[in-house]
Write a structure and sequence with these properties.
Shape: globular
Number of helices: 7
Radius of gyration: 16 Å
Strand content: 15-25%
Number of strands: 8
Low-confidence stretches: none
Strand order of the largest sheet: 3-2-1-4-5-6
Largest sheet: 6 strands, parallel
Helix content: 25-40%
Structural class: alpha/beta
Mean pLDDT: 97
Length: 216
Amino acid sequence: MNIGILGSGIVGRVLASGFLKEGHQVMLGTRDVKKEEVQKWLSQNAGAKAGPFAETAAFGELIVLAVAGEAAADVISSCGHGNFSGKIVIDTTNPIDHTKPPVNGVLSFFTGPGESLMERLQKLIPDAKLVKAFNSVGNAFMYKPDFGGTAPTMFICGNDDEARKTVTGILSAFGWETEDMGKAEAARPIESLCILWCIPGFIRGQWTHAFKLLKR
């Protein structure tokens, strides 16, 4: 597929490299194509492209939203809502309130208890098929995570059943076990996993972990 990655930060670059390794065509969306990190990534990934957000969204048959949560709505608007119509959008964002420092390792969100950022974004682009994924682990483990042979669990949700199946296939190729949590309302607890994942990092400097759902 043609994959459009909206966001040229470390999360966007890691996921873009993963899609390239899996044989997809990739464009990295950025506000500044000449940015040092973008140019370095292009030099290290033969055949990759980079371009403005709107061009990247138009390019992608599948789109990955990999920007800061507070910027997500503006980035979507800058792309033109029509560029998302009918497409799967993997939403990696978390609604972290960067105006407030963590309290005893606990992040603050700018969303309330009865909503999620993904639900807000779905309302902006109702014709898109949003699937929440990649929001509850650090970028170092997003592609081919190595935990001694045990595949970690990625929790996903979204309103379109076939879109979730497609994202499950991508996650399997990326080295993950997937737990499908159903419709968009499940993004509320899934986004909260970001807070839980970050606590050991803030209080103990431990960032090398992932979640695993055990079943019997």
